[in-house]
Design brief:
six-stranded parallel β-sheet, about 210 residues, four-stranded mixed β-sheet, Rossmann fold, alpha/beta
Length: about 210
Amino acid sequence: MHKSQLWLQERHLERTADALRNNHFETYVEPTRDLANVRLLELISPGETVGFAGSITLNEIGIKHFLQERGNIILDPFHPGLSKADSLRIRREIFLSDVFVTGANAIVESGRIVNMDGTGNRVAATIFGPKRVIFVAGVNKLVPTLDAAMHRIYHVAGAANSHRLEVRTPCADDGFCSDCRATDRSCCVTVITERPPKWTPTIVLLVNESLGL
């Protein structure tokens, strides 16, 4: 990528970070995923229990590996080989974790975080339960308005995620949102985080790379 494009993205990230800080989110901007990992290892103390959502962003930066190497207890309901019962149990245990780390579907430049779930465990854990929450988002998640955030979720993240998970929805087949009535629909619960919830300190880490869907 040309350095001028990286510079422009950085300006957008910094402007969004200022808006997030103005809304009382502790916010950091890092130029690369490697430095994002360094920051996360500073924000998460050794010995803390860390819950994870199903997130391509977090898989791409590889933070779980570094935390496990350091000895942190990892609660990952999507670990390969887990039974449905064990996955559900871990999702509930995450509500008692020290830190919950998740991606974001969209970050509005006015300083709002928008997420949508099918089950709701991820968005629920961002509101109450864990002692603190960390959102990690690449520059591709930035949008100018709430309407743009919803459009991104329905027509970009939702369709791509449904295809990835091989669920039985129309968008998983044709790539287009039809506001379906499918039982496998993953667009069921929307949370707009405008300020950190009371009793849940919330951190946002923005990265100047395209990460996740």
